[in-house]
Amino acid sequence: MNDAKQMVDQVALAPVVEALCREASALSGVASGGRMTLPSRDAVIGVVEDLRSVLFPGYFGTADLHDESLHYFIGATLARAMRALEEQVRRGIAFVEHHDVDTCGHCAGSAATATRTFLGRLPAVRRLAASDVEAAYEGDPALKTRDEAIFAYPGLFAVTNQRMAHELHSLGVPLIPRIITEHAHALTGIDIHPGARIGDRFFIDHGTGVVIGETAVIGNRVRIYQGVTLGAKSFPLDEHGKPIKGIDRHPIVEDDVVIYAGATILGRIVIGQSSSIGGNVWVTASVPPGSRVTQAQAREDRFADGGGI
To answer: Are residues 171 and 285 in the same domain?
Structure first.
């Protein structure tokens, strides 16, 4: 009886397996009989956590560090992280270019160059991350120590991920930057595209529901709250009706701007320096430096003389 049941199960299983294999090959673009080797999401996240422990040693990774062991810990951790990152970058480049991870010396060389360049930028990333800690400490009266922000604040976690991902994105590395930022998105509810350019001392308070688009530019000492969107107003289409990729379509937020909870700012507009954007405001036109935009002002501007969005 058991043998007969097992045979029936195998007969029912076989066509489902074949159908799923065909779908997987069609999705990846790998021809039948070819090899499909993608980057490993788990490996990329492991690299990010190693790098987080290098940027904030003692807070992440091992907590038992002192002056003598610090250099060894950072050196050993960086060496391990860079080996793993180079392999994942190589896989990403090879898969995007020709769906083959093993045969292209150009892909391996490109991965090695990108990884070395990224390594050289880590001290600058560390300085930016440290400035974000200061912004959190100065901007949140509930924060008693800087350590609390490093250990526990979702905004700092998401922005640190984005700062690492942004450097890889700027080097033309495919796939890996989005894995890094979407990992933070899943954990924090903060969605920052790796292409966004963010200045120093950036603070996201609370953070849940924040969305920052690919071509957004954020200046120095900017503070935003939960539910803020820096998005695109519309998507220009090509002759085939498909969205045109790579054009600047997200806001520019200048230095010292505060954007309160629930504000939605759309399109390639400029929020002028030292402006304050009130909660739940919908902004689709540039505002000059020093502006104070409230819900009442937004309603009046939007509907005056039959206007709208």
So the answer is: no
CB atoms < 10 A from the CB of 109, how many? 12
Q: Is 25 part of any domain?
A: no
**Residue 202 located in a structural domain:** no
Q: CA 221, 155, 129 angle in degrees (round to 5)?
A: 60
Q: What is the pLDDT of residue 306?
A: 46
Are 180 and 213 part of one and the same domain? Answer: no
Total domains in the fold of the chain? 2
Instruction: Tell me how far the alpha carbon of residue 261 is from its chain's centroid.
Output: 21
CA angle in degrees (0–180, nearest 5) for 202-205-211 = 75
Higher-pLDDT residue of 98 and 169 is 169
What's the confidence (pLDDT) of residue 215?
A: 97
What's the pLDDT at 240? 81
pTM: 0.86
Query: C-alpha distances in angstroms, 4 versus 10, 12, 18?
Result: 10, 13, 22
Q: Per residue in 151-180, is it b (16+ CB within 10 Å) or e — as a string?
A: eebbbbbbbbbbbbbbbbbebebbbbbbbb
| Full domain range(s) for residue 243 | 209-309
Count of CB atoms within 10 A of residue 308's CB? 7
- Collapse the DSSP code of 230 into the 3-class scheme (helix H, G, I; strand E, B; otherwise coil) and give the result: strand
Query: In DSSP terms, which residues pair with 253 in a beta bridge?
Result: 218, 271
Instruction: Determine the Cα–Cα distance for residues 276 and 307; give it in Å rounded to an integer.
Output: 23
In this structure, the answer to whether residues 166 and 296 fall within a common structural domain is: no
